[in-house]
Every structure is written in structure tokens, then in C-alpha cells.
Design brief:
Elements: E1 9-12, H1 18-29, E2 33-38, H2 41-55, E3 60-64, H3 70-79, E4 85-88, H4 103-131, E5 134-141, H5 152-171, E6 177-184, H6 190-200, H7 206-217, H8 229-239, E7 251-254
Parallel strand pairs: 1-2, 1-4, 2-3, 4-5, 5-6, 6-7
Helix pairs in contact: 1-2, 1-8, 4-5, 6-7
């Protein structure tokens, strides 16, 4: 399957590292003009250069802005006024005792993980529907379905993204624009390495620590390992392509079989 996105512009939020970075590289390799987003200009500039190097594409641009704020979202839209592919990847996570999560932390998780995506969908969806083509992809998580006891606030935001995706898919019905969520499973990123260490300690070598984490805390995984970011990116690139024109309003899993369900 040859995916050609050479006539498309993509914005990937939270793309200076991890899954977002892998998605940016994948879309750039497929020929898209890719906007890399993060809060700091220096870090975004460094990420732009890494995406250019890894993808072999020079058509990679910065889009600096804190999307958890209205001002930051406006700055990103000013930098990239029109996109064909919007990937809402930005997200924060961390463990917390459920009864110790205060109102401010609940709000912070919602602002970063959910409202940031809604702001950009509001900004870009009208242009997509006018042009009769577009892709909106919201990065959810297995935690949207299997709420972790140690991350209820995070799981809540990812469940919300499933509803946001389905609702906006209905808003875009019949326009040639698709809106989907991607349910990513436990993925190997720097942040997840830190999270694994929080739960299993620093004594074990990484390979052993990863195995212990999966066995104790994510035993439902059928691949019994963390997913690599590139594996998430492969599905996102496909869903961004013309080949996925009949897939909308869905929650597509790339979770290593973690969610124990025969339905997506």
C-alpha cells in the first residue's frame, strides 16, 4: 500500500517527543507538510530538525503554543491557518491516589487532554468541511476503556475523547471529513519509562522492569510488551490517508490486544 499525502498539511500536537514525534515522522515520510507543536520555541525547533532528519523531508514547520490555553491555541492557528490532517496527540498522565486528586488537578487534566483537542477541532473542522476532505484523529488510550485505579483522572479524559470523536464525526457527516479516535495501548516512551519506574522501582534493568510492569500492572496485553511509538504512527498514517475514507466515528485499537473485547 503506497500512501501519498504530498498535497496535505498535517498538524500533530504534542509532537516534540514520544508518540507525537513518531506520528510527525510517519506523516512527513508519506509526503505531508507537517507542523510540529510544543510549548517552547527552542524545543519545537529542535524537534522540527529531528523530524526533517528522520523523515528525509524538509517540509516540516514549527507551531509553538500551549494548547491548554486559548491564547496558545490561537498562536498555533495563526502559525498554521489551515490543515487537512489534525492529530490531537497532546496529553499528560501520571499516577495519583484517587481520593487525593483535587479540583485543580481534575481541571488541569481536562484542559490539557480534552479541551485542547476541542479547541483545534473547532478551529479547523469548518475549513475541512468546506474543502470536502479532512482527517481528525484524537489519540485516546486503553485507559479510556479499562480505567486504571491509579490514573482515574487520566482515564476520564481519554473516555471523554471517545465521545468527542464520535460527536464531531456526526457534525462532519456527509462532508468527506472523517473523525476517529485511536486507542493506543501501553507504549514505550520516555514518560512511560518514568511511570514504570514509579511503580516497579529503579533496581531492575529496563528489560526486566518492563516485563514486571506488564505482568503486574498490564497483564491483559496479548503481545506482553510495550508498544513502540512507530507502531501507533503506522495506524495514524493509514487513517490519515484516502484509503481510510469509509472509517469515521470509530475508536480504532492499536493496543497489543490489551482491551479484552472483540469489538473496537
Amino acid at each position: 500500500m503506497q500512501i501519498d499525502l504530498s498535497d496535505r498539511t498535517a498538524l500533530v500536537t504534542g509532537s516534540t517527543q514520544g508518540i507525537g514525534h513518531a506520528i510527525a515522522v510517519g506523516l512527513a515520510r508519506a509526503g505531508a507538510r507537517v507542523a510540529v507543536n510544543g510549548r517552547g520555541a527552542e524545543r519545537v525547533a529542535e524537534a522540527v530538525e529531528r523530524v526533517r532528519t528522520e523523515s528525509g523531508s524538509d517540509d516540516v514547520v514549527p507551531a509553538v503554543g500551549d494548547l491548554a490555553t486559548e491564547e496558545g491555541a490561537a498562536a498555533v492557528v495563526d502559525a498554521v491557518p489551515s490543515v487537512d490532517i489534525l492529530v490531537n496527540n497532546l496529553g499528560i498522565f501520571g499516577s495519583a491516589a484517587p481520593l487525593e486528586i483535587d479540583d485543580a488537578e481534575w481541571r488541569r487534566y481536562f484542559e490539557v487532554n480534552v479541551l485542547s483537542a476541542i479547541r483545534l477541532i473547532r478551529a479547523y473542522l469548518p475549513g475541512m468541511t468546506d474543502r470536502r476532505w479532512g482527517r481528525v484523529l484524537n489519540l485516546a488510550s486503553d485507559s479510556a476503556v479499562v480505567i486504571p485505579a491509579e490514573m482515574i483522572h487520566y482515564g476520564m479524559t481519554k473516555t471523554s475523547l471517545l465521545a468527542v470523536s464520535r460527536g464531531f464525526a456526526k457534525e462532519a457527516a456527509g462532508t468527506g471529513v472523517t473523525v476517529n479516535s485511536v486507542i493506543a495501548g501501553p507504549t514505550h516512551t520516555g514518560g512511560v519509562e518514568n511511570f514504570v519506574r514509579e511503580l516497579v522501582g529503579d533496581e531492575l534493568p529496563w528489560d526486566e522492569a518492563q516485563r514486571e510492569f506488564m505482568i503486574k500492572h498490564r497483564p491483559q496485553s496479548l503481545i506482553q510488551r510495550l508498544i513502540e511509538p512507530e507502531e501507533i504512527a503506522h495506524l495514524v498514517v493509514y487513517l490519515s490517508s484516502p484509503f481510510a475514507s469509509a472509517t469515521t466515528g470509530g475508536a480504532l485499537r492499536v493496543d497489543g490486544g490489551y482491551v479484552d473485547s472483540i469489538l473496537p
